[in-house]
Amino acid sequence: MPSIREYSEAECAAFHRVRDTFGPFSNMASGYGFQIGDVAVLSSEHQYQAMRFPHRPDIQEQILAVKSPIKAKRKAYEFISQTREDWHRVNIPIMRHCIQLRHAFNADRLQPLYDQSADMPIVEKSLRDDFWGAKPIGSGRLRGVNALGRLHMGHRLELRNDPDFCVLTVAPPEIPDYRLLDRKIDVVDVPRINSAKGWQTSLDL
């Protein structure tokens, strides 16, 4: 399990609600869709939750069909007992892939946010979840694994080291049984023109 860390909220690119300055880093932020093959995915949360069930394309289809990230999570939890057995070994690389996809297809809006975060820690402030986020512990401090924020920081570093990272293609993680709607997820080709307005129109989001 990744280590637990403490942060000063005032020195972080912290987000608690999707309307916060850095709220688009949240999986619950709508309007950052992408496409895998011919499958339109409305948010990173839709994709993340769907990948619990590579052996159940019928469940994946139900998750992808709902209209908001929070509803995608709730739909997945209706079938939580059928989550793939190795979920806690593969969920981190799956989330990393989701972050890469959402950025690749929405770079014009998300890249400025990564730039604005500069070298600050990116932290999801959560009142309940100290694994994906970090909980307030008083005196303006946050404590938790902050797995989502750390994945965003890793992605930010990748972008700095290689400006072409995720520009034209996004490779899948090397994990077994990585399937969406009964098809293996392969390298995803990213449209050369990926403006948010044009992309959303093309997917009818």
Q: Describe it for me?
A:
This protein has helices at residues 44-50, 57-65, 69-77, 87-105, 107-117, 147-161, 196-203, and strands spanning 5-8, 13-15, 34-36, 39-41, 122-124, 135-138, 141-144, 169-170, 179-180, 183-184, 188-189. By secondary structure, it is of the alpha+beta class. The strands form 5 sheets. The chain has a 3-stranded antiparallel sheet with strand order 1-7-6, with no helix packed on it. Strands 2-5 form a two-stranded parallel sheet. Strand 6 and strand 7 form a beta hairpin. Residues 194-205 have low confidence and may be disordered.
Low-confidence stretches are: 194-205
Question: Strand-residue fraction?
Answer: 15-25%
Q: Give the H and E element order.
A: EEEEHHHHHEEEHEEEEH
Question: How does the overall form come out from the CA principal axes?
Answer: globular
Q: What structural class should be given to the helix and strand makeup?
A: alpha+beta
> If you compute it from the alpha carbons, what radius of gyration comes out, rounded to the nearest whole angstrom?
16 Å
| DSSP summary: helix tally | 7
Q: Major β-sheet, in short?
A: 3 strands, antiparallel
How many beta strands in the DSSP annotation?
11
- How are the strands of the biggest sheet laid out side by side? 1-7-6
Helix content class? 25-40%
Q: Write down the overall mean pLDDT.
A: 92
Span between N and C termini?
36 Å
